[in-house]
Specification:
Structural class: alpha/beta
CATH architecture of the largest domain: 3-Layer(aba) Sandwich
CATH superfamily of the largest domain: Type I PLP-dependent aspartate aminotransferase-like (Major domain)
Mean pLDDT: 95
Largest sheet: 7 strands, mixed
Strand content: 15-25%
Shape: globular
Number of strands: 17
Low-confidence stretches: none
Number of domains: 2
Oligomer: single chain
Strand order of the largest sheet: 4-10-9-8-7-5-6
Length: about 400
């Protein structure tokens, strides 16, 4: 079945059906944040309108109801990623917060001077800067895994970097700027052979591919709710239980304690040890419905839809004279980064916005990657299950108008 012209999922997303600058909206920035289905918006609305209360602290119905929904979300996430136990699912503010937690509590505590951390050339800044901060403080060495011109990790070069000094490898599962799907399972296996731990940035992967942390043998994995049709303000960190138990708390405050005295404080068990303060309750509860939505469709169907969209968009855009696509990996998901010769990406985005087309331009928080491709920025069209052929044709026609404008 083709979903290019008949897409049954568009009706689930109220934001998709609106007029921008007098034109139908073609939302092509799902790599930045996905639109939200009605069931997510309705659940968040219900919490704020009728079910508002704090979690884990009240002995009245509203609090117990919120706590039940909150913890049910944790259980659903554990099942989604096949975590051995829900206590290994830590709620954070997002992927960035999760990276910082591990950098602070694991790397700062257990890595020493001269140890090495490996990062790939395609990493998001949030998977670079936290490690740099620790590395500077602890005199740890950061080394970079190179990529090829297609935007793929050069696996042989990665293996050459592995040695007994490497204590941590942190790599994106799917590149936000290129759409490249990295060989994460194979990389983890190689890293473990030298005793290194592996952190997976799954922010872009969580709504595209089925993730099984036990099959991957992941030490740490992080993702954000808003990249998977859920609310902003909530993310997840998965960690192996023995690692999370040995790590000190990231932040102090309510709910992460056992006993507090002015002389000494003891800490709560997992997962609460890493969840100080009042969490983003509405966002966590809303995320539960986003998981339901993904499970209802299924990852096989999501892949089928997105692969069809990607193939159509790629072939269509490549007919535009002077357009170059950055990121042509053999294993790739629905992200197209491109530039048009002689036209700055920011000018492209501003002009096609007048045609109702929403794309992202800039360095996509991947400045080292932009330097690799020798460009200041790219345009990025990212597709999801609510897109259709008309959205892509609208982008194509808008780009043709931009070329005409600059001729």
């Amino acid at each position: 079945m083709s979903y290019l012209k008949s897409n049954p999922f568009r009706k689930d997303f109220p934001a998709i059906d609106q007029i921008i600058n007098g034109k139908r909206l073609a939302y092509l920035d799902s790599a930045a944040t996905t639109l939200k289905p009605n069931i997510v918006a309705d659940e968040v609305d219900l919490y704020y309108r009728k079910e508002t209360s704090n979690v884990h602290r009240g002995l009245y119905w509203l609090s117990e109801n919120a706590t039940t929904k909150f913890e049910e979300t944790r259980q659903k996430i554990a099942k989604l990623i096949n975590a051995p136990d829900k206590k290994q699912v830590i709620f954070t503010k997002g992927t960035t917060d999760s990276v910082n937690l591990v950098a602070h509590s694991y790397a700062r505590s257990f890595l020493n001077e001269g140890d090495e951390i490996l990062l790939s050339q395609m990493e998001h800044h949030s998977n670079i800067v936290p490690w740099q901060l620790v590395a500077e403080e602890k005199k740890i060495v950061i080394k970079v895994i190179p990529i090829n011109e297609r935007g793929e990790i050069i696996f042989e070069e990665f293996e050459k970097l592995l040695n007994s000094k490497v204590k941590l490898v942190s790599v994106v599962f799917i590149s936000n700027a290129l759409g490249t799907i990295n060989p994460i399972k194979k990389m983890i296996s190689s890293a473990h052979k030298v005793g290194a731990k592996f952190f997976i940035d799954a922010a872009q992967a969580i709504n595209h591919v089925k993730i099984d942390v036990q099959d991957l043998d992941a030490d740490f994995l992080a993702f954000s709710g808003h990249k998977m049709f859920g609310p902003t303000g909530v993310g997840v960190l998965f960690g192996k239980e023995e690692l999370l138990n040995m790590m000190p708390p990231y932040q102090g405050g309510g709910d992460m304690i056992d006993v507090v005295t002015f002389e000494k404080t003891t800490f709560n068990n997992l997962p609460h040890k890493f969840e100080a303060g009042t969490p983003a309750i509405a966002s966590v509860i809303g995320l539960s419905k986003a998981i339901d939505y993904i499970n209802q469709i299924g990852f096989d169907k999501i892949k089928e839809i997105e692969d069809e969209l990607l193939a159509y968009a790629t072939s269509k855009l490549l007919t535009i004279p002077g357009l170059k696509i950055y990121g042509t990996a053999q294993e790739k998901t629905s992200v197209i980064s491109f530039g048009i010769e002689g036209i700055h990406p920011h000018d492209i985005a501003s002009l096609i916005d007048k045609e109702g087309v929403a794309i992202r331009t800039g360095h996509h928080c991947t400045q080292p990657l932009m330097r690799f491709f020798k460009v200041p920025a790219t345009c990025r069209a990212s597709l999801s299950i609510y897109n259709n052929q008309e959205d892509i044709d609208q982008l194509y026609n808008a780009l043709l108008k931009v070329k005409t404008f600059f001729e």
